[in-house]
């Protein structure tokens, strides 16, 4: 995944913006992602993830469904589409109540961190309009803009988050070799780059045709896992 991807897919014009993207994608950035497994905890419990091969299969599926949808929403938000319309589009693309709740919690946490790091009126307006929290990809897109980044950067960050969070969670859940998990992420990097590029193209279509043109790739098993996970009394991750 290329940190310098922007609206046109080329370099963004300076190391400051590249550094902002690295900060935004860093798991240590206080946006709350470390507390969520992206469905991996329930998949581990179900026996679908038990080693690096099954983790790679899970992440590949997640990247091409939830990852693509999130990347396109983030790119569209960074490209200036109405964030409230995009938030409604995100809601329509998230059939699981548990996933909607998790996405809004993450969006609220991301906005809190972003407003401290990159103060901007657009972030304040979004927080005021959606006090319960916007969907995370929408918050990510506006955060990218506030940080001087473009739609391609927002899409790349969303695509990366869609696989990095669950991968990191599986290191903790299964005690997987972190070097082997890093190798899985490296193998997925070209696919994540393609997903980000597709997301930017979809955001361009949405600018002309409206949010309905954005991808709505579904992952019914992730929805099922989210609802199942939400019912557990004891769990390591919030989602």
Summarize the structure.
By secondary structure, this protein is mainly alpha-helical. It has helices spanning 15-25, 40-45, 52-78, 83-92, 97-117, 121-129, 136-146, 151-174, 178-209, 220-230.
Q: Can you give a write-up of this model?
A:
This protein has 239 residues and is mainly alpha-helical. Helix content is 68%, strand content 0%. The chain contains 10 helices and no strands.
Per DSSP, what share of the residues sits in E-state strands of 2 or more residues?
A: under 5%
Q: Which shape, going by the Cα principal axes?
A: globular
Helix content: 55-70%
Topology, number of strands: 0
Query: What is the CA-CA span between the terminal residues?
Result: 25 Å
| Main structural class | mainly alpha
- Give the radius of gyration: 16 Å
Low-confidence stretches: 1-14
Query: With helices defined by DSSP (H or I, 4 residues minimum), what is the helix count?
Result: 10
Largest sheet at a glance? none
Mean pLDDT level: 92
Compressed to H and E, one letter per element, the order equals HHHHHHHHHH
What labels would you give this structure?
single chain, 239 residues, mainly alpha, 10 helices, globular, disordered N terminus
Write the SSE topology.
Elements: H1 15-25, H2 40-45, H3 52-78, H4 83-92, H5 97-117, H6 121-129, H7 136-146, H8 151-174, H9 178-209, H10 220-230
